[in-house]
């Protein structure tokens, strides 16, 4: 098998060499970047998706109004730069955000990009247009936007109900591309049209996704690559073996586990690998509107049963972080201090004492050594979900809960949990930006499509609004910590751990940056090139 891959790599090398041109004093232009993909996305429409599996292959097709600098690892408010916008300004007592747009930009089908496209995109996201998204997981991001107005073809304004400084951060996320007004939401699921550095070629479900260079890209000289090809390989070990054998130029970002990283470094010592937090929280979701998890005692018992350090030790050889909703510091900008975190029930270091308390709560609810609670533990059918789900099932046995693993394919997973068609689930919540507004409103507000647990606390929701308007960062941090602590005490969505994962690429791949506090920043590969 290795010989076949090696031959494929040699063949690929000859093609790359033939089509690569050195730019004077700089990177080389040409070549197809070959990556494996961890699974098959349900469709190609980023605005209708809730998974990194969709962002990675399709963000290169698009642009945002603004984006985080792609050569800096940490996403912060001060490293947001223009993209389809040339500039922006807050006016009207910080209740209007106005963008001057870049002239001369064209969609991949040749039609001009204008302010109307921006308005159409956000009208759909806010549910204000005749055309509708089939799924709209981030509608809550724009609750404070009254309307989007245009002033000619090259100016657009977001008019807010009240100040929301984080709106700019939300617009810089990899989940916020601008869509064309003239293409239907249905067509965007199967043949996306963008303004980005790469054009969509084809998507064969469970096989491959192919993109090609946009020769008319507005950013002169970019992209360097001729294209990107993703081969869908759900088995992580098989995919890594193919990477080691030279079939792929790059692994799927942040998908190389710590144990597999050792295999890569031993078998391909020249490979470049980095390990970073990816702002993805592994957590438990419960259908709190239906028995038995409508009982707060059972939910609290489950949270108390967790041995978080055991998860991190088994899965990441100790390279992970315990935290609340927000990514822990120093990589995270908003996470609670350690001493505050450990004051929350279940986060203290004495696991045995926590579980003893959990068993008492289970007995209060009518369960015990002679009467166990049988549940199905649903999770997505990829390793980063399945592996912790197995550990969770094992840990729940200590408090009289017998779990049965129920695996669900990616295309069905998010629709299933959005309609609350589950009892108990092991979920990964990827935060699109490291900002409390994104996390709180999207995952915990009462009406959000991504509030998979039906958690609803109107008093806490009022605090979401208070912190959202605060311009003093230190004051806002303390508000965020208090909210996060309350969410954990309410067992809204028990956070097990924040992962650290690896990304690897061959030594000839240049210009790659791996984000340290958000995998979803919208990486477009337009600055990536290959020196071979």
UniProtKB/TrEMBL annotation:
Keywords: Signal
Localization of this protein: Periplasm
Superkingdom of origin organism: Bacteria
Domain Solute-binding protein family: 80-448
Main location: periplasm
Record InterPro entries: Peptide/Ni-bd, SBP_5, SBP_5_dom
Signal peptide range in chain numbering: 1-24
Family that this chain belongs to: Belongs to the bacterial solute-binding protein 5 family.
Official protein name in the record: ABC transporter substrate-binding protein
Species in which this protein is naturally found: Bradyrhizobium barranii
């Amino acid at each position: 098998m290795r010989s076949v891959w090696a031959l494929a790599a040699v063949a690929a090398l000859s093609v790359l060499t033939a089509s690569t041109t050195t730019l004077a004093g700089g990177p080389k232009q040409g070549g197809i970047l070959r990556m494996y993909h961890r699974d098959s996305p349900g469709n190609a429409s980023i605005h209708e998706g809730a998974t990194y599996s969709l962002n990675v292959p399709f963000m290169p097709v698009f642009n945002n109004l603004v984006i985080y600098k792609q050569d800096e690892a940490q996403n912060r408010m001060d490293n947001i730069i223009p993209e389809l916008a040339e500039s922006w300004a807050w006016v009207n007592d910080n209740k209007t955000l106005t963008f001057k747009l870049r002239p001369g930009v064209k969609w991949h089908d040749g039609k001009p990009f204008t302010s109307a496209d921006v308005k159409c995109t956000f009208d759909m996201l806010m549910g204000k247009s005749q055309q509708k998204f089939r799924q709209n997981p981030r509608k809550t991001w724009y609750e404070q936007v009254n309307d989007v107005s245009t002033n000619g073809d090259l100016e657009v304004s977001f008019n807010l109900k009240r100040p929301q400084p984080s709106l700019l951060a939300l617009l810089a996320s990899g989940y916020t591309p601008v869509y064309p007004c003239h293409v239907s939401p249905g067509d965007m699921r199967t043949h996306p049209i963008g303004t980005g550095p790469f054009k969509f070629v084809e998507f064969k479900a469970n096989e491959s996704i192919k993109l090609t260079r946009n020769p008319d890209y507005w950013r002169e000289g970019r992209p360097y690559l001729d294209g990107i090809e993703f081969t869908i390989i759900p088995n992580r070990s098989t995919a890594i073996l193919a990477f080691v054998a030279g079939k792929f130029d790059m692994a799927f970002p942040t998908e190389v586990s710590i144990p597999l990283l050792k295999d890569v470094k031993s078998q391909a010592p020249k490979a470049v690998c980095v390990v970073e937090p990816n702002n993805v929280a592994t957590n438990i979701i419960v259908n709190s509107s239906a028995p038995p998890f409508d009982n707060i005692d059972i939910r609290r018992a489950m949270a108390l049963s967790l041995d978080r350090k055991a998860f991190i030790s088994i899965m990441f050889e100790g390279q992970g972080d315990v935290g609340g909703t927000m990514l822990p510091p120093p990589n995270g900008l908003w996470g609670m201090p350690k001493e505050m975190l450990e004051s929350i029930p279940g986060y203290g270091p004495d696991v045995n004492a926590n579980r003893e308390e959990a068993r008492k709560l289970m007995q209060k609810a009518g369960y015990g050594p002679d009467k166990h609670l049988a549940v199905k533990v649903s999770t997505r059918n990829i390793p980063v979900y399945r592996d912790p789900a197995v550990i969770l099932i094992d840990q729940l046995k200590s408090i009289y809960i017998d779990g049965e693993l129920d695996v669900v394919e990616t295309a069905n997973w998010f629709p299933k949990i959005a309609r609350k068609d589950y009892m108990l689930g092991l979920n990964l919540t990827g935060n699109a930006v490291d900002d409390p507004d994104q996390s709180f409103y999207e995952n915990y507000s009462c009406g959000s499509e991504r509030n998979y647990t039906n958690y609803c606390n109107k008093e806490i929701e009022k605090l979401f609004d208070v912190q959202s308007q605060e311009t003093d960062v230190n004051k806002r941090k303390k508000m965020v910590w208090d909210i996060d602590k309350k969410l954990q005490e309410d067992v809204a969505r028990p956070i097990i751990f924040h992962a650290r994962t690896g990304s690897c690429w061959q030594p000839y791949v240049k210009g790659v940056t791996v984000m340290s506090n958000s995998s979803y920043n919208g990486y477009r590969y337009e600055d990536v090139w290959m020196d071979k």
